[in-house]
Amino acid sequence: DTTVKQNPRYKLARVGKPVNLICSQTMNHDTMYWYQKKPNQAPKLLLFYYDKILNREADTFEKFQSSRPNNSFCSLYIGSAGLEYSAMYLCASSREEGGAETLYFGSGTRLTVL
Amino acid sequence: GDSVTQTEGLVTLTEGLPVMLNCTYQTAYSTFLFWYVQHLNEAPKLLLKSSTDNKRTEHQGFHATLHKSSSSFHLQKSSAQLSDSALYYCALSGASSGSWQLIFGSGTQLTVMP
Questions:
Q1: From the CA of A99, how many Å to the nearest CA of chain B?
Q2: How many whole angstroms separate alpha carbon B67 and alpha carbon B29?
Q3: Which of A2, A36, B55, B89 has its Cα between 20 and 30 A from that of A105?
Q4: Which chain B residues have a beta carbon less than 8 Å from that of A33?
Q5: How distant is the Cα of A11 from the closest Cα of chain B, in angstroms?
Q6: Sequential DSSP letters for B25-81
Q7: pLDDT digits over A5-17, tens only?
Q8: Span A26-54, pLDDT tens digits
Q9: DSSP class of residue B82?
């Protein structure tokens, strides 16, 4: 089973309120990622976990937090949502295949901030 | 940092016609290029990947050849099918902001008409 699951599928949030998105995988992959996708833009890497080590991109460092309580789960947390956070959020996990990390994606959570 | 360019945001074709989606890249380090496909309401899935110069890679009727001399990895198919309608991402395993990551192009939405 090469499934990455994301919940919820759609999320509505108010400006200034916190948002928590959930991702899970049962493939025992060491690395899990969160990407942000806006219309007509490339998916943008926000952060990734290698095992228990969190790596956050410099330009989004203060905007997003994450936790990985075990190998299977990873969350994305927004402390105070702004309108600019409205986007599709894609979670992925990866394993090395043929010399390169191959990513397996979830179907995404579409966040709308009002 | 490394980058991927997909020049066409939207491509509309009639069923049975050939498909060609353009992808060029810029990298100082990487040799791995990928094509991911995302059908409506589904997760992005790996379609093709390659690291070998001038070698044709094929999967599910699609093919691509990595040309390092022109920094290109165009996706092709001889005859489009209705089921090929999807969002196609070209991606590079490369470096950005000092960390390794999968760097995506902005995507090409392919619509195949009857």
A1: 9
A2: 15
A3: B55
A4: 102
A5: 15
A6: EE-SS---EEEEEE-TTS--EEEEEE-SBT-EEEETTEEEEBBTTTTB--EEESS--
A7: 998 999 999 999 9
A8: 999 999 999 999 988 999 999 999 999 99
A9: G
